[in-house]
């Protein structure tokens, strides 16, 4: 109580596939969710608890937070102390083209970590997003960070699956393809010959959420993409399967920490929670 919480979200039109965020949190809790992008963050002060892949990670001052596309996670400040951090979100297709590799980038198996090689490049990239500099300086900082990141990362293309994983991937791919549709767990289980209860547990274990919660997250990410394009919020709510604009706004803010209106193109809104 008393300490102001905020999220400040923006996109620089000169840099393709990059979005920035500065956050100051005290009591806000992010539920389990995932992004279609890579998330690369740096804690500036305080401590945050990040939960992902069945483990709890403590992010302290100077710690990086790294999230792959589709990686389910949740988080909140530790013991309601002020937690400040900066995040950069990268479009996977742009990262792939810039680094010149195909597949998912990993930094070991780490979610929260320290890496001296990345610090100067990250700080410089975030700096050029905050202050007026030339386009050439922005592009140089962007390219330098991606280069250092690529040198530190390993590559995975997830090309081999066992029979159980194949069935779960079929279900996930079906949800991704029919994200705006309606289907029951029985229908999903029938497509791959699994018991519905077994499917729910196995899917949660593999992807971090049960099938229908996973579908909601896909819908939220679709809504995010539509809002970035400047589409009307009420229409986005309808297109993405929410009851109405209020339903989208409540669900969206709970997940992302800010309302859908913040995502309007060229928006640089300081959003108080």
From TrEMBL:
Domain of life, per lineage: Bacteria
SMART domains assigned to the protein according to its UniProt record, in alphabetical order: HTH_ARAC
Domain HTH araC/xylS-type: 169-266
Alphabetic keyword roster: Activator, DNA-binding, Transcription, Transcription regulation
GO molecular function: DNA-binding transcription factor activity; sequence-specific DNA binding
Record protein name field: AraC family transcriptional regulator
Organism: Sulfidibacter corallicola
């Amino acid at each position: 109580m008393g300490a102001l919480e905020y999220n400040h979200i923006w996109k620089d039109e000169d840099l393709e596939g990059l979005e920035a965020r500065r956050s100051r949190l005290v009591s806000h809790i992010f539920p389990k969710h995932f992004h279609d992008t890579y998330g690369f963050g740096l804690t500036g002060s305080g401590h945050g608890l990040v939960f992902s892949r069945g483990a709890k990670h403590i992010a302290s001052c100077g710690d990086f937070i790294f999230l792959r596309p589709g990686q389910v996670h949740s988080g909140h400040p530790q013991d309601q102390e002020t937690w400040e951090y900066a995040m950069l979100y990268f479009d996977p297709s742009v990262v792939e083209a810039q680094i010149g590799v195909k597949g998912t980038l990993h930094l070991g198996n780490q979610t929260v970590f320290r890496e001296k090689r990345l610090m100067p490049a990250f700080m410089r990239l975030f700096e050029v997003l905050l202050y007026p500099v030339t386009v050439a300086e922005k592009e140089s900082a962007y390219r330098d960070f991606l280069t250092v990141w690529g040198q530190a990362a390993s590559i995975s293309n997830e090309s081999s699956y066992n029979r159980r994983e194949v069935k779960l991937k079929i279900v996930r791919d079906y949800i991704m393809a029919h994200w705006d549709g309606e289907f029951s767990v029985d229908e999903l289980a029938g497509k791959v010959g699994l018991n519905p209860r077994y499917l729910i547990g196995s899917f949660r274990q593999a992807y971090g959420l049960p099938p229908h919660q996973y579908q909601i997250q896909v819908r939220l990410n679709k809504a995010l993409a539509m809002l970035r394009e400047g589409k009307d919020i009420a229409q986005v709510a309808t297109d993405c399967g929410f009851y109405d604009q209020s339903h989208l706004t409540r669900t969206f803010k709970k997940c992302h920490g800010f309302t859908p209106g913040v995502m309007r193109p060229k928006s640089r809104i300081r959003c108080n929670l």
